[in-house]
Design brief:
The complex is a heterodimer of chains A (400) and B (408). Chain A is α+β, with helices and mostly antiparallel strands. A three-stranded antiparallel β-sheet of chain A has the order 3-2-5, with no helix packed on it. Chain A has a two-stranded antiparallel sheet with strand order 1-4. Chain A has twelve helices and eleven strands. Helix content of chain A is 30%, strand content 8%. In chain A, helix 3 packs across helix 8 and helix 7 crosses helix 8. Chain A has one domain. Chain B is mainly beta. Chain B has one domain: Porin (Beta Barrel), CATH 2.40.160.10. Chain B has two helices and 20 strands. In chain B, a hairpin with a 2-residue loop joins strand 12 and strand 13. The longest helix of chain B has 20 residues. The relative contact order of chain B is 0.13. Classes of the chains: A alpha+beta (400), B mainly beta (408). Chains A and B meet through helix 1 and strand 4 of A and strand 3, strand 16 and strand 20 of B.
Chain lengths: 400, 408
């Protein structure tokens, strides 16, 4: 056998060896605590199968004019706004307009409440009508939503203090909303004059994940379902453009996405930061710990979790008052956003921070400094902290 | 379509049966390897098999591979793929009139396409008429894409995800060549049916010229009645190599229907530059292509869809052993590397002024063994970085691919 043959043989052996050790040449999966996507632990095979179906519908299904997109829309797919199931970017921020108090939206005839600011070609997108106030909403992260959905109304009411009876300057209250006919009441729902407690959305104007999902298909992508069968362009009832099963799968996906996992929780700086967080009163609204009630999904049933939110409305002061609201919330009131996953926000926001309801805060410190109203006391205390203590607090927040 | 394919297969089987009776009647039409061959010649410059003195020649190529690819640590496991089976059939109707067709089966029978089916009529070397299903001569890869010619299992990203290789349409045009001692000049210009609005309405969620390949009706009617112009000028020097400059442009949207104006005419324009050479002392082959794409997208549409795109690739192939190996008289062992880049959305966000990403880089080292010039066994390692439109941390893809491709 000639020399060249040996070279060739050596080459073949090398390739074979390469294949045998291919695991070493492959990318490694990211650490579980560094990503927001993935299912909650403890799902059954059936639940995991539905999770995967919902994942495909949520992240991979892109609508086109041929499959029902628009004609007016904000985004072409769920995943466009919720990249990696994380917080969104100003590019996908949506605009709502037309309601200034609890008497309802006065601009429904003009396309309210949501502005569809994009359109397929040959159509013109909506404009904010003259005289309408508006607010911009940056898409929230999707993770851990099933836990939030499964907190009982009674638990939320126990956190509420609408008259500030305890005199701490913080007076959370629920957003009482009317719910559409297609929704089923959750077990032990608390009803107040025919209205229910909303818990999702910047103003807590969505009752549950089904409500949120159906609304997003219709208002964000212009996709009619049998639940919301009207075309956002002309208000007429049209054939469904997404199947009931797909909507159900997407809801199941959102419900069973895992909760963000805190990183470096034993780091002394993070432990100190958490103490500062509590001492300056952040936890009065950003309630660290909640508990779920019963769920047919056992992985979500009777669980303690750490969202750093009370899901209630709070007056956030004039700087954050856009003059627009939903449900029974006042224009200066916003639902406490969960802080879990905050440190991973940049992984879905293009390596930047776009925080607060409209992404105006470009850092965690900016976000804290924008807190007014019920958050003003904590803001003041934050400003009085030493630079190292501020950094420690931020380190804790970034660990979430 | 199916009837045509069945008829072709019948002819091939009949030929095959005939040949089994008398193999001496089979004759290989040799491939020209002189330094005056251009990318535009690749369509006819293939190893055809001719039966006796019949004015018909057949040929084709096949390619298959194994791959193990991991995407951010998640793999679909071991995959065996039969990517392409392509059959050529050419016929000399007259000394100066010829016909060639290329039928391709991709991924089994998932896609069946007539990639080329044209009649060429020569009036003069500088004036040839070509009509039928033609390959739009944009860049080099679209013209010269046969699997056995490449050391890489995957086709270049820029050629298949930015440009729509293999991109062919119904139409006609002219081409010609002129030779001098050291130079050859060539041109091609065609008017064909073209793109449609799938460019901005597709499940890829980005501007995608390849999405228009899904419109099979384009072989029957133009989407908007507006022709697509494709032209290429190529020049080759015996010592230096070949340089090509090509352009493709036309209207992609339905701007008018039943005489009613629906929208302004929206254009897609593509400019491509390609170059290939072989370094004299080392026999290093270099092949590169770059393309720029501009698409007129309504301002009211989402910025998810890029107004501009660009990208390209460079292949460097170095023979390291040549000669008799394993009793193959003219075997070659090569090492090669491909670098590639595609930016699907060049621009900045209106909302933030920040860069729009949606781009991919890849580097693909390779080893190939050619027992003959028409057959390649190749092993590739792919490392790819892909960033989404927002510029979030990249998705990293790595993979090992081992495959073969051969003319038959």
């Amino acid at each position: 056998m000639g020399k060249k043959h040996w070279y060739a043989l050596l080459l073949i052996v090398s390739i074979t060896g390469g294949i045998a050790s291919c695991e070493k040449l492959m990318t490694k999966p990211p650490a579980d605590d560094s990503v927001l996507d993935g299912p909650v632990e403890g799902l059954t095979p059936e639940q995991l199968t539905q999770f995967l179906k919902g994942d495909v519908a949520f992240n991979d299904e892109v609508f086109t004019s041929a499959t029902g997109l628009g004609p007016l829309f904000v985004a072409t797919s769920c995943g466009t706004c919720h990249a990696r199931d994380g917080k969104g970017h100003p590019f996908t921020t949506l605009t709502r307009f037309g309601q200034t108090d609890s008497t309802g939206n006065k601009f429904l005839h003009a396309g309210g409440p949501q502005l569809q600011d994009r359109a397929i070609y040959t159509y013109q997108p909506e404009q904010i009508p003259a005289g309408a106030t508006f607010s911009k909403f940056t898409p929230p992260a999707n993770t851990g939503l099933g836990f939030l959905d499964n907190v009982t109304d009674a638990s939320l009411m126990a956190l509420a203090d609408p008259e500030d009876v305890n005199g701490d300057g913080v007076s959370g209250r629920p957003n009482w909303i009317k719910i559409p006919d297609y929704l089923s009441e959750r077990t032990n729902s608390i009803v107040n004059n025919g209205k229910y407690i909303g818990r999702f959305g910047k103003k807590a104007a969505a009752y549950d994940l089904f409500h949120q999902t159906v609304n997003a298909y219709n208002q964000d992508m212009g996709i009619a379902s049998s639940y919301e069968a009207h075309d956002t362009y002309n208000g007429q009832e049209i054939d469904p453009e997404v199947s009931n099963q797909t909507v159900i799968d997407v809801v199941a996906y959102l419900k069973t996405l895992k909760a963000p996992i805190q990183r470096t929780s034993s780091d002394p700086a993070v432990v100190s930061g958490q103490k500062i967080f509590t001492s300056i009163g952040c936890g009065k609204c950003h309630t660290p710990e909640l508990h779920t009630g019963y769920s047919s999904i056992s992985a979500l049933s009777d669980k303690t979790f750490f969202p750093y939110s009370d899901l209630l409305l709070h007056d956030m002061g004039p700087k954050l008052d856009d003059g627009y609201t939903e449900g029974s919330a006042h224009t200066n009131e916003w639902r406490t956003p969960p802080l879990w996953g905050l440190g991973l926000s940049r992984n879905s926001q293009g390596s930047n921070y776009f925080l607060m309801h409209d992404g105006r805060a470009r850092s965690i410190e900016d976000a804290i400094l924008l807190h007014g109203g019920e958050g003003q006391q904590s803001n003041n205390k934050f400003q009085q902290l030493s630079a190292p203590d501020k950094a420690t607090l931020i380190k804790f927040l970034e660990s979430l | 379509m199916k009837q045509a394919i069945l008829l072709t297969l019948y002819c091939l089987l009949a030929c095959s049966a005939f040949c089994q009776i008398d193999p001496d009647l089979l004759r290989r039409v040799p491939v020209k390897n002189d330094s005056f061959q251009l990318n535009m010649d690749a369509i006819y410059n293939r190893p055809f098999l001719q039966v006796g003195k019949l004015p018909v020649a057949v040929g084709g190529y096949v390619e298959g591979n194994y791959q193990y690819v991991s995407n951010n640590g998640v793999s679909e496991g071991h995959q065996f793929q039969m990517r392409r089976l392509t059959i050529f059939l050419s016929s000399s109707i007259n000394k100066r009139i010829k016909f060639l067709t290329e039928i391709e089966f991709e991924d089994g029978t998932k896609e069946i396409n007539i990639e080329f089916a044209s009649v060429d009529i020569e009036f003069a070397p500088l004036l040839n008429l070509r009509g039928g299903i033609v390959m739009n001569p944009i860049g080099a890869f679209n013209q010269n894409h046969d699997g056995p010619k490449w050391e890489f299992v995957d086709r270049p990203i820029s050629a298949t995800q930015l440009l729509p290789a293999t991109w062919s349409n119904v139409g006609f045009g002219l081409y010609g060549k002129k030779y001098t001692d050291n130079w050859v000049y060539a041109y091609e210009v065609y008017l064909t049916n073209g793109f449609d609005d799938r460019i901005i309405a597709n499940p890829d969620n980005r501007t995608s010229l390849p999405a228009s390949k899904e419109n099979k009706d384009r072989f029957e009617e133009s989407f908007n009645g507006s022709p697509l112009l494709t032209g290429k000028f190529a020049i080759r020097n015996r010592q230096i190599g070949e340089l090509g400059l090509s352009y493709m442009g036309g209207v992609y949207n339905k701007f008018e229907e039943d005489g009613i104006v629906l929208d302004q005419k929206r254009r897609v324009d593509v400019l491509a530059l390609d170059f290939n050479t072989s370094l004299p002392h080392t026999n290093t082959a270099i092949n590169t292509e770059w393309a720029w794409i501009k698409v007129n997208i309504p301002d009211t549409y989402t910025q998810q869809f890029g107004r501009k795109q660009q990208g390209g690739f460079i292949d460097i192939v170095q023979p390291i052993l040549k000669g008799k190996m394993f009793d193959w008289e003219r075997a070659t062992l090569n090492v090669a590397v491909r670098g590639e880049y595609a930016d699907f959305n060049v621009g900045t966000f209106k909302q933030t002024g920040g860069n729009i990403y949606d781009h991919v880089y890849a580097i693909v080292p390779a080893i190939s063994f050619r027992p003959t010039a028409q057959t390649v066994l190749r092993a590739n390692y792919r490392y790819e970085w892909r960033r989404d439109v927002l510029g979030n941390p990249p998705t990293k893809t790595t993979g090992i691919q081992i495959g073969f491709s051969t003319y038959f």
